[in-house]
Structures are given as structure tokens and as C-alpha cells.
Amino acid sequence: MPSVTINLPNTTFVSSAMPDNNNSFYPLLYTGTDPNFLNCISLMEVELPILPVTAVDSAILQLTVIAKSGNIPSPVVVNKVTSPFTAATVTYNTLPSFTPTSSQILITTEDLYKAVEIDVTSLVNEWLSGMSPNHGIALTNNDGTTIVQFASNKIVYEPYFPKLTLTYSEAPADTTGSSFSYAQLAHVIEQLIALYPTNVFTVFTRGLTASSVTGTPYALFKSSSGTFGSLFILDDAGQKEVIPLHAITAIYLGNGTVYNPSITYLTPPKLAPGFDTNLLTAYYEYFPVSTEMDMYLGSNIHATGMLYKNEYGIMVLSDTEGNTPIFIPVLNINVVLPTFTTTTAAKAGKAKVTIEVKDK
Predict the structure, then answer these.
(1) In which domain, by residue range, is 334 found?
(2) pLDDT reported for residue 343
(3) What confidence tens digit (pLDDT) does each residue in 308-326 have?
(4) How far apart are the first and last CA of the chain?
(5) CA dihedral defined by 70, 78, 43, 158, rounded to 10 degrees?
(6) What is the DSSP secondary-structure string of 244-257?
(7) Of 224, 212, 239, nearest in space to 355 by CA
(8) What is the tally of structural domains in the chain?
(9) pTM over cut 0.70
(10) Shared-domain flag, residues 252 and 150
(11) Are residues 58 and 191 in the same domain?
């Protein structure tokens, strides 16, 4: 999960012994009861970064303990400030209002010169969601006997600075229609490699001059950072032929091949709005299965047959019995000439299924 750590430079403490003094220049944040400063409350402005979420999984306030009086643990409470203040000008007499939260910690002498962590997730999520305005944090210690001194950024030594670490789950990005179409093609190719390992495939490709590549299916290569394979590799008598998925207009499995009903297809997640999504879903909704059609792919590739399968991103031409299937990614289709009736030939399983590169 992503995380971001922010510094909290705008901090101070106020003292009942000096009710009109601003103490933002001090290197320490006094919290509790001190013989000289009397009742002390620390204040922290918190400027949250822009995040892609409205709630975090965790928000951890990190404070370094520099000094602590007494041997008994000191109970430090994180309070939600409920009215505005400015660290550079606030005094005890202009102390903002605040309410306690459930976030608190016991500070002991073993914590000296260490960073302690306080979970303030609930408070930060109130700010992020807009439930409460972000007026910052007040730290209190109401035991009446001990003082805790936390480091501020005025202490100069950066590792001691107060910090807030936010950890969140990335919001799932909408999948584009194009990306899903290629994921669907990769998913199908992986199955074709496993189901038809000895078939001689013909893979038709788009371009200024249409072409086809033949060979037995060898592999679908996926990069180390890829989410699915993107290079379809055929083997032609030891020669490896590498075809990028975006160039594929059709995959023909060879004469005598029968469609394997165990082939599965991906169900699209939420698709991002856009032309590619519009086109992907239009192909799926417009053409019913059993439609006979002529299809023109790439520059001059011509395929005919009955629509045997119509899935998001992939059409399969065949006859009613699944003979000689042709797998066609929809985003490389140029023109479709459908016949929205089922002919006698198709009903008898004799619909003609062909694909070829036409001469210009």
C-alpha cells in the first residue's frame, strides 16, 4: 500500500504561567504540568497532502520524547482542535477549543530520545471525509504532576521532527476498453496454446500491407512489470516469430480444428468511459450469436462465417458445430456485413468459414 510521511513544522505550546506569550520559537513542545510553565498544552497545525482517497488505512503521529518528569507514566491525549488557530501567534489566552479523541499514549522514562507512535487514523479520516474541519491537534497531559517535552522542528535535528505517516489503499483505477480487450485476447491465447499445442496457427496482422504468420503456438510473453502477456510467439521450424497483441486481427487454428467448449472468457470490470469502451460494448450488444457475416479486418483481410461466440473484446467465427474457428479481436475490425438470419446451410452446420488476405 502507498504511504506518505509529512513533517509538521507549525507547532507550539501555550503556558498558563505566561498567558500572553507565544512560544512557537521553542525547540520543545511542553505537555502537562511544569513547575515554571504550570499548565502546558501543545498545539500542532496539520496540513494534509492531496490524496487519491477519502479515507486512509492508518495515520500514525510520530513524536520524539526529549524529556519527561517523574517516574510514573504520563498520559498524553490527542485532542481534536475545533476552532482555528495559528501556531505563530496563539497564546494561552487565545487557546482554541478542542475535544479529546480516543488516541492517547503513556509516556515512560524508557521513551526518552525515541520516537513514539500514536494512532490518529479516526481523526484524520474525519478530516478527509469532511466530517470535521481540520483545525489541527492539541496534546494534553492532565495528570497534574508530570511534564513531557516532545521535539519540535525548531530542534534542528531532522530525525526528531514531529511527523505524520499516512498509509492508504490505492483506489482501483477504471479499466479502459482497450486494455480489457488486450487482456481478453491474452487470456484466450494462453488457452489456445494449452489446448492446441501442435496445431499450425495462422495469425493475421494489420498494417499498411496485411500479412499472416504461421507456426505452432510457442508462448505468450509477459514482461516482469506486465499484468498480462503482450507478445504472442509462434515457432516455425525453430524460427521464433514474435507478434504484438495490438497487431493481431485474427487467429486461425487450421483446417479440421473444432472449437473447445472449455475455453473461458474474462468478465469486464468497471470500464472507463471513452470511445474504446463504447466500441467494445457496441460489438457485444449489436451482433447476436448465429449471425452470418463478412468481415474486413486490417487493410485487406477478409473473413466469413457464422458468429459462434460473441464475448467482450473477442468474436469467434465458425459454423454451428464449432468447426474451423477464427478468433477475431474486435478493435481491429474495419467493416462488418451481417446477415441477421440463420440460413439453411448454417442450421445444417455447413456455413462456410474462411479467412484470407485479399489482393488489392
Answers:
(1) 177-357
(2) 45
(3) 999 999 999 999 999 999 9
(4) 54
(5) 80
(6) EGGGEEEEE--TT-
(7) 212
(8) 2
(9) no
(10) no
(11) no
One domain for residues 105 and 201: no
CA neighbor of 44 nearest in space, from 117, 137, 131, 144 = 137
Same domain, 243 and 163: no
At 67-77, the pLDDT tens digits run 999 999 999 99
DSSP helix/strand/coil, 171: coil
Which H or E run includes 178?
helix 177-195
Q: Is 150 in contact with 34 (CB distance < 8 Å)?
A: no
Which residues share a beta bridge with 192?
Answer: none
CB 1 within 8 A of CB 57: yes
Residue 315 placed within a domain: yes
- 293/326 Cα distance (integer angstroms): 13
SS (H, E, C) 17-32: CCCCCCCCCCCEEEEE
What's the CATH number where 79 sits?
2.60.120
* pLDDT value of residue 162: 96
How far apart are the C-alpha atoms of 328 and 303, rounded to whole Å?
9
Q: How far is CA 160 from CA 8, 14, 66, 165, 205, in A?
A: 11, 21, 9, 14, 61
Q: Are residues 220 and 99 in the same domain?
A: no
d(CA 76, CA 128): 24
Q: Which of 104-108, 199-203, 341-345 has the lowest mean pLDDT?
A: 341-345
Nearest to 32 by CA among 19, 14, 12, 44: 14
Query: Which bin fits 147, alpha (ψ -120 to 50), beta or left (φ > 0)?
Result: beta
